[in-house]
Structure formats: structure tokens, C-alpha cells
Write a structure and sequence with these properties.
It is built from 8 helices and no strands. By secondary structure, the protein is an all-alpha fold. It has a domain of about 100 residues.
Length: about 230
């Protein structure tokens, strides 16, 4: 349509140059109420000109396509959330089956973004029996570094990444606390065992002392007893 407009404008310009009377040549003036053929043709061409707002229609269509793409990517984020909700309600055995089928499909199409994001959720959801925040963080970090995600999905991916990083730190802290607690328990058990051994030795020593006292008392009684 832009090309047709340009052709129309060029035609009008050429027609105007041909039909325009020379200012140096005397010609009989034409009555105003009787339009010439050139004037009628020029008016028809001007009527056929494309309005400026019509020229901008392709830009509006381009914007519509961008909005459609954005809507599609937002729908994809909704699918991720729906998958997370459904996966959380599965049994442990069903979750294992979903994880296995996802990895099998990903082996055939390793660049499939949806499958890769599903695997991140499988390892990153707190309700997952396959929870592995370190693996989830690594998988999602690789996706972000590759710039594989559409820009409309980046806010969700970044939010998910921040959550997984925080969960990974909390899990690491929990493991460290658990390790310290186990170490303290082991030390306490060792101290308890040592205390029991010391108590047993003390009891054995007291028993020997009692035996020695009994022997000494018996010998004293023999010395005091009168001779017949």
C-alpha cells in the first residue's frame, strides 16, 4: 500500500507539470465553473491517495504480533505453575515416574526449554521427594547463562532462581547444623561412656578397699583373741 501511495503521488506530480500553463505564454483563461480534464484527473488521483494513518497500519500489526507473543510466553509461565501444583500433589512413586519420563524426553530434545524448566521444578520444589536444590540451581543457572529463555519468562525464572538459591543456602545450613548436632551427640556419648568406665573403676576400687578392710579387721580379731 505504501508503494501504491508513492506511485500515486508521483503520478500527480507529473500530471501537474504537464497540465500547468506556462506563466510566460498567454492563453485563454478557463471559466471557473468548467473544470478541465487535467483538473478532474488530478482530483481523482488525490482522492485515491492513501491517508497517513493507513500507512501506519503495518506498525500496528507488528505491535499486535508482539502482544500475541507476550501473551503466549505468559501462558507458558502459567503452565509451569500448573505443573508445579500438579507435581506437588503426586505420590512419591508418581513423582519418580514424571522425573524419569522428563529425563527420557530431554535426552531426545536436550534444548527443549519447557522440559528443562520442568526438571528444575522437579528438583527445586520443597514438596518434591526428589528435592535437590543444588542440582536445581545448577540447571536453572545454565539456562539463564545461555539466554535461552524468552524475555517475558525471565522475571519468573529470576524469581525462581532467587528462591532456589535461598533454599539451597538454608538446606546447606541445616545440613551443617545437623552435622554439628551429630558431632555433639557423639562427644556426649563418648563422655557418657568414659564416665561409666570411671564409675566402674571407682566401684571396683571401693570394693577392693572394703575387702582390705575386712582382711585387716579379721587379722586384728585374731591378735586380740585369748590363747588357750
Amino acid at each position: 500500500m505504501v508503494i501504491v501511495s508513492l506511485v500515486a503521488i508521483a503520478t500527480i506530480a507529473c500530471t501537474s507539470q504537464v497540465t500547468k500553463p506556462s506563466i510566460h505564454t498567454h492563453q485563454t483563461s478557463v471559466p471557473k465553473h468548467e473544470p478541465t480534464a487535467a483538473t478532474s484527473k488530478s482530483s481523482e488521483l488525490k482522492t485515491a491517495e492513501i491517508k497517513p494513518e493507513e500507512i501506519t497500519k503495518p506498525v500496528e500489526n507488528k505491535s499486535s504480533l508482539a502482544n500475541l507473543s507476550s501473551t503466549s510466553n505468559n501462558a507458558q509461565v502459567s503452565q509451569y505453575l500448573s505443573f508445579a501444583d500438579d507435581f506437588s500433589n503426586l505420590t512419591a512413586e508418581a513423582q519418580k515416574q514424571v522425573q524419569a519420563s522428563t529425563q527420557q524426553a530431554l535426552a531426545k530434545t536436550p534444548n527443549d526449554i519447557e522440559l528443562r524448566m520442568r526438571l528444575v521444578l522437579i528438583y527445586g520444589l520443597p514438596s518434591s521427594t526428589l528435592l535437590d536444590t543444588a542440582k536445581a540451581q545448577s540447571l536453572l543457572q545454565q539456562l539463564l547463562q545461555e539466554s535461552a529463555l524468552p524475555s517475558e519468562q525471565l522475571p519468573f525464572a529470576n524469581l525462581l532462581f532467587d528462591y532456589i538459591v535461598a533454599a539451597n543456602k538454608a538446606s546447606k545450613t541445616s545440613r551443617e547444623d545437623q552435622k554439628r548436632l551429630e558431632t555433639m551427640q557423639q562427644k556426649q556419648e563418648a563422655l557418657q561412656t568414659k564416665l561409666e568406665n570411671t564409675q566402674q573403676k571407682l566401684e571396683a576400687a571401693l570394693q577392693k578397699i572394703d575387702e582390705l578392710k575386712n582382711i585387716e579387721k579379721s587379722m586384728g580379731q585374731r591378735e586380740v583373741a585369748p590363747k588357750k
